[in-house]
Amino acid sequence: MLKRLTCWTALAVAVTLPLSAQAHRAWMLPSTTIVSGDSAWVSVDAAISNDLFYFEHHPLVLEGIGQPPERASAAPARPRPANRLLISAPDGSEVAAQNGHVGKYRSVFDVELSQKGTYKLAIAGAPRYFARYKENGEDQRWMGELADAAQAIPATAEDVQISQMESRMEVFITSGNPTDGVFKPTGRGLELQPVTHPNDLFAEETAEFIFLLDGKPAAGVEVNVIPGGIRHRDELNDISVTSDAAGKVAITWPQSGFWWLEAKVVQEDGLEAPLNQRRATYTATLEVMAP
Amino acid sequence: MHKWLLLSLATAITTVSAAEMEVSVEVPRLAVAEYHRPYVAIWIENANGHVADLSVWYDLKLRDREGEKWLKDMRQWWRRSGRALELPIDGLSAATRPVGQHSLRFADDHPALAALVPGDYQLLVEAAREVGGRELVRLPFSWPVTEQVSHQAAGTSELGKIQLNIQP
Fold this sequence. Notes:
The structure holds two protein chains of two kinds. Chain A is built from two helices and 20 strands. By secondary structure, chain A is mainly beta. In chain A, strands 2, 5, 6, 9, 10, 11, 12, 16, 17, 19 and 20 form an eleven-stranded mixed sheet that branches. In chain A, strand 3 and strand 4 form a beta hairpin. Chain B has one domain. By secondary structure, chain B is an alpha+beta fold. Classes of the chains: A mainly beta, B alpha+beta. Chains A and B meet through strand 2 of A and helix 2 of B.
């Protein structure tokens, strides 16, 4: 039983990546977020781990990047869509990652920044569906396509909760002057709309961001930011804020460095059957400069 | 009253057009195993932010303009001005300088000085050194002046004595 549960947890982490329900955190860490000069490159680590930003647990496997690791035969044989990385250039065109590699604890790839302006690295997939229910007094779980839910969950099941989960993970990198082209929302899931440009963050200054759910400002979004370097201190030193009616949060950065931002919102009203919960998360790795 | 204002404006304009600024920056001698000349940016701000650049010292000789890669290490200058520029710029881009006191003169026809309206300003000098540290020194001054004025400050690590002499 324990083994089965462990497998399931690992699978859920791998499939849903930055899901806050898991203890692990999924993240990308760029070599830098601000570059000068021509022929600029950044190198990016992508991993799933507990502490930020240490690659010590699982690589974040991305479609087309490196050779995915062989799965242990004990793992359940479920098809799972790979996480797809989309790199957007300042002019909106898509850029391919280069020199991809998957190691034991991290994926690595490079991005060439041939344009001036702000690039966006994003990992976001289609919504995924999960169910929890009781059958004969035992807790059961299911994941799959929503259309299959009715067939997969027995009619005798009790306490059925079907959740839609969406996640988005982003990193911003600017060569030269910051631009705003990549912030055009997709209109799906939870997204960040900058008031303060995410490549213009400085310690002791206050940054403002607006969170959008399906393209509209979302109130009540819980936002938590954690500075990297967790292993070498006792306290998490995180900051929690909640978005106001306009979807806005303000964060004053106490120190420079890489920060991990996680925003989440849970919706339980106004959902179409058979859904009774929707969870949307947004995560980003932000670099805060010293003043 | 009106006439008086006009007269004083005329005086101010005359003053501005005759003014000269001398900026002296010391690159300190450092006892380090691996020494590279610092990148240095010198610019003027007022309460609203960046006003004008005076000089940027960086490695101009590297192949493929590779020296520009480290301009961002002068992180305040990069944020205030550098990132919006297409370098090199004549009269602004300059080679790095050796240890010693370096004096720069900016005459009244320099675009930075020509753009200064009367008011309170700061001279900023930011230095960043490869495999070394980074330091920013601020030197407040008023513009224009009626008699010669001298301002001084000093860095503690990457910059030595900074001096600003303004001629009326």
